[in-house]
Automatic annotation (TrEMBL):
<dbReference type="GO" id="GO:0005737">
    <property type="term" value="C:cytoplasm"/>
</dbReference>
<dbReference type="Pfam" id="PF13855">
    <property type="entry name" value="LRR_8"/>
</dbReference>
<keyword id="KW-0433">Leucine-rich repeat</keyword>
<dbReference type="InterPro" id="IPR003591">
    <property type="entry name" value="Leu-rich_rpt_typical-subtyp"/>
</dbReference>
<protein>
    <submittedName>
        <fullName>Plant intracellular Ras-group-related LRR protein 6-like</fullName>
    </submittedName>
</protein>
<dbReference type="InterPro" id="IPR001611">
    <property type="entry name" value="Leu-rich_rpt"/>
</dbReference>
<dbReference type="InterPro" id="IPR050216">
    <property type="entry name" value="LRR_domain-containing"/>
</dbReference>
<dbReference type="Pfam" id="PF00560">
    <property type="entry name" value="LRR_1"/>
</dbReference>
<dbReference type="InterPro" id="IPR032675">
    <property type="entry name" value="LRR_dom_sf"/>
</dbReference>
<keyword id="KW-0677">Repeat</keyword>
Length: 348
């Protein structure tokens, strides 16, 4: 049952309390506390046992900090949403939230995630979009091994830590609109990754690692609006890839004529190029060997001559993007995109 708390000072009795006749016993049954969108500058002293809360929504307020003591007592919380506030940092006591699965801190002023966040080993979704992050902890991926979705778009990241390649459960990685100069070399460990978006890093990102061809679960790859001049041959081995966005890059390989023929032609071109490299003793022998071992490459490109669904060709269309001016804090985005109602609905 979803219950909404009205903001109040501890010494005051609200009309809602008088009408509902809340007691300490009833407080024990609370599951969700929604304090979103009520212009909070600070959090009121809690009048309930914080250990009974499993979902807490503090989004769309004016909070500049969250008390360490409050966070440390949210021992059973599963979802914590503080997006669209004025937070410059997260409390170190967030490491006490061992049951936390979803954390949304997007749309704040955070420049560094606390090291203690790595103790939240149940975390499955981390949304830190629209902040001021300049780096992620180098050991983040060694600890948060249960992450399925990592969203860090619209920050100031220059690189992603190599430890991210150890998050073998990761399915979605969104790092667009940063200043990335490269991606980790050992991406092949991300065996469940389905969506990779590193678009709009502009001139900073000029090449992709060859290991991208070992992401055999990859369905969508968006590298648009970067400085990439050629695609790694290994992309030809991505059997499940159905969507490839490359708009806004100075690509010379594959040539434009190949791109005009669609995704199937791109895969075939890159696979043929790899086949030629396989015959050459000097070119990427170790990578071709790995691809053969993973069963994604057979030394030729016959696989890509099998018929692919028509939608594969349709998927290779240059994506429509919002103008950069329109990409602002989540609180200014379209209504419902970050709706707490949707996040905490009974259907969810």
């Amino acid at each position: 049952m979803e219950m909404l708390f009205e903001v109040r000072q501890p010494a005051e009795e609200t009309t809602a309390e008088r009408n509902m006749g809340w007691t300490a016993e009833e407080d024990q049954r609370l599951e969700i506390v929604d304090l979103s969108g009520i212009s909070l500058n600070s959090l009121p002293n809690p009048s309930i046992n914080l250990a009974t809360i499993c979902k807490l929504d503090l989004s769309n307020n004016n909070l500049q900090s969250i008390p360490e003591s409050l966070t440390a007592r949210l021992l059973n919380i599963i979802v914590l949403d503080v997006h669209s506030n004025q937070l410059k940092c997260l409390p170190h006591s967030i490491g006490c939230l061992t049951k936390l699965k979803i954390l949304n801190v997007s749309g704040n002023l955070i420049s560094m995630l606390p090291k203690t966040l790595e103790s939240c080993r149940s975390l499955e979704e981390l949304n830190a979009n629209f902040n001021k992050l300049t780096k992620l902890s180098d050991t983040l991926g060694f600890e948060l091994t249960n992450l399925k979705k990592l969203s860090v778009n619209s920050n100031k990241l220059v690189y992603l830590p190599h430890s991210i390649s150890h998050i073998t459960s990761l399915r979605i990685l969104d790092a667009r609109l940063n200043c990335l100069t490269s991606l980790p070399d050992d991406l092949e460990n991300l065996i469940k990754l389905e969506v990779l978006n590193v678009s709009q890093n502009f001139h900073h990102l000029q090449a992709l690692p060859y290991s991208i061809g070992l992401l055999f679960s990859l369905v969508e790859l968006d590298i648009s609006y970067n400085g990439i001049t050629s695609l790694p041959d290994s992309i030809g081995c991505l059997k499940r890839l159905h969507k490839l966005c490359v708009d806004g890059n100075p690509l010379s390989s594959p040539p434009p004529l190949v791109f005009q023929q669609g995704l199937h032609a791109v895969k075939e071109y890159l696979s043929e190029k790899m086949n030629a490299g396989h015959r050459s003793p000097r070119k990427k022998k170790s990578w071709v060997g790995r691809l053969v071992r993973y069963g994604t490459f057979s030394g030729g490109y016959g696989y890509f001559k099998t018929s692919e669904p028509r939608e594969d060709r349709e998927a290779f269309m240059l994506s429509q993007y919002r103008s950069i001016d329109g990409l602002t804090s989540p609180r200014y985005m379209a209504p419902g995109m970050f709706s707490p109602r949707r996040l905490f609905s009974s259907r969810g």
